[in-house]
Specification:
globular, single chain, alpha/beta, TIM Barrel, about 350 residues
């Protein structure tokens, strides 16, 4: 499948671009009235994510509104645990829950690597449909949760502020935790490779809860498996030339070692200065980020000012993809997103 030379892909290769590319984490979401209408029609989130035609519709909604430089597959990070038989479901106001959490070595031993084209067929089917409907207007990003982040939900059985059960397993029974993380790393690698084979033009790994770990635990239980995934993807014939972005929220102390993983880009949350981040990693990787999502609730003037500050902070170097430091929240006005996208394209021309 051909891949035009979009500015988003050029930026990930640290090549010159005409202006800074921008996309927004969770850009297909509840802040859009058209998304809310589709969700009401579908009945629930899982139906949307598991129906390729609806996933395609929702993926394309933000691109119909804004001149974004990439689309991201509409899906969920917990597709892999669901395919492992853990019983993913969503409770209104409480978020995702798993009916069969993983709490013992015996539970881990029962887990296998899901086959993306059978157990998760709706995901590559959605990728193929989205690529066809996009008609190369913008590149498509596929994604997965990281092994540590998936393990957190699988052990806890739901969201948590500190995932103490997962940390306790890591400390009390490290061999079992490593077996769990290894099967997850192999699952993520296989899953992302299938997305690339189906047409995804970039891949992203969301290590949402890596920042909860102390430095030594981060290296052992998160970073190690992120590097394993990158190595597996780069060795895979379907993925060798597909850029890989790692986003480990709250793990700013580890940017240098994450940059050494072989990935093409690093996502940044908003608690690190982008100029400092670039000084630390140099030109080894592209950087993606890193506007505080709450800025989008401020005035258009403030949004423009913050966009300019980040672009100026990155400087006149190749390799910047503008994004938020985490997902957009449901309270944001779509008009404010339009202000941001236009500001990035305007101010980004000065540093292209």
């Amino acid at each position: 499948m051909s891949t035009p030379d979009h500015r988003f892909l050029r930026a990930l290769r640290r090549e010159p671009v005409d202006t800074t590319p921008v996309w927004i984490m969770r850009q297909a979401g509840r802040y859009l009235p058209e998304y809310r209408a589709t969700r009401e029609r579908a009945g629930n989130f899982l139906t949307m994510a598991q129906t390729p035609e609806i996933a395609c519709e929702v993926t394309l909604q933000p691109l119909a509104r804004f001149p974004l430089d990439a689309a991201i597959l509409f899906s969920d990070i917990l597709t892999i645990p669901d395919a492992m038989g853990l019983g993913l479901h969503f409770v209104d106001g409480e978020g995702p829950k798993l009916r069969h959490p993983v709490r013992s070595a015996a539970d881990v031993a029962r887990l296998g690597v899901p086959d993306p084209e059978t157990d998760l067929r709706y995901v590559p089917d959605a990728v193929r449909l989205i690529r066809r409907e996009l008609k190369d207007r913008a590149p498509l990003i596929g994604f997965s949760g990281s092994p540590w982040t998936l393990a957190c939900y699988m052990i806890e059985g739901e969201g948590s502020s500190n995932f103490s059960r997962a940390k306790a397993m890591a400390l009390d029974d490290a061999p079992t935790m490593h077996r769990l993380l290894d099967v997850l790393a192999r699952s993520v690698s296989t899953y992302l490779a299938a997305q690339a084979a189906a047409g995804a033009q970039a891949l992203m790994v969301f290590d949402t809860w890596g920042g909860l770990l102390a430095p030594s635990m981060f290296r052992e239980f998160s970073q190690r498996y992120l590097a394993q995934i990158v190595a597996a993807l780069k060795a895979h014939p379907a993925v060798a030339d597909v850029p890989v972005i790692l986003f480990s929220k709250g793990a700013n102390a580890h940017l240098e070692t994450l940059a050494d993983s072989g990935c093409d880009g690093l996502g940044l949350d908003w608690t690190v200065d982008i100029a400092d981040a670039r000084a630390r990693v140099g030109s080894r990787v592209a950087l993606q980020g890193n506007l505080d999502p709450a800025v989008l609730a401020a005035s258009p003037e403030a949004i423009r000012g913050e966009a300019r500050r980040i672009i100026d902070g990155f400087g006149a170097h190749p390799g910047h993809v503008f994004n938020l430091g985490h997902g957009i929240t449901p309270d944001i006005k779509p008009e404010h997103v339009a202000v941001l996208v236009d500001a990035v394209h305007e101010f980004g021309r000065r540093t292209a």
